Amino acid sequence: MTDPPMKIQDHIHKLLDNTLCMTALIKEGAWLLVYLQDPSDAYDALIRAQKTAVVIFLLGGACIVLMACYLPTRLLLGTAENGDKT
């Protein structure tokens, strides 16, 4: 007999405040495993990865904008200088 899937629920309770509650039946349903965890602890790695991704995207976008402004200006100045020499 296979165990039913684990259930993850976000409970807001007066005593538990804001707690992530995970339950799973084990030993063919004879036991109920209950695990309580603070959401900030549970999602800490996810939030850190999201912040890192945002910083990388912002830096990449800034580099793209700077290069889009710098390279055409440099090419136009080089063309203008070469045109003056002939």
Characteristic terms for this protein:
53% helix, single chain, rod-shaped, 86 residues, 3 strands, 2 helices
Concise account of the structure shown:
This protein is an alpha+beta fold and 86 residues long. It has two helices and three strands. It has a three-stranded antiparallel β-sheet.
Describe this structure in words.
With 86 residues, the protein is an alpha+beta fold. It folds into two domains: 7-42, no CATH class; 44-86. Helices cover 53% and strands 28% of the residues. It is built from two helices and three strands. It has helices at residues 39-42, 44-85, and strands at residues 7-13, 17-26, 31-37. Strands 1-2-3 form a three-stranded antiparallel sheet. Strand 2 (17-26) and strand 3 form a beta hairpin. The longest helix has 42 residues, at 44-85. The protein is rod-shaped and about 90 Å long. It starts with 6 loop residues before the first strand and ends with a helix. The mean pLDDT is 80.
Question: Which residue ranges are poorly predicted, with pLDDT under 50 across at least 5 consecutive positions?
Answer: none
* SSE pattern, N- to C-terminal: EEEHH
Q: Tell me the span between the first and last alpha carbons.
A: 88 Å
Shape designation: rod-shaped
Radius of gyration, taken over Cα atoms and rounded to an integer in Å: 28 Å
Major beta sheet, strand line-up: 1-2-3
What percent of residues adopt helix (DSSP H or I)?
A: 40-55%
Strand content: 25-35%
Please give the largest β-sheet.
Answer: 3 strands, antiparallel
- The secondary structure category is alpha+beta
What is the typical, i.e. mean, pLDDT? 80
Total of domains? 2
Tally of individual helices: 2
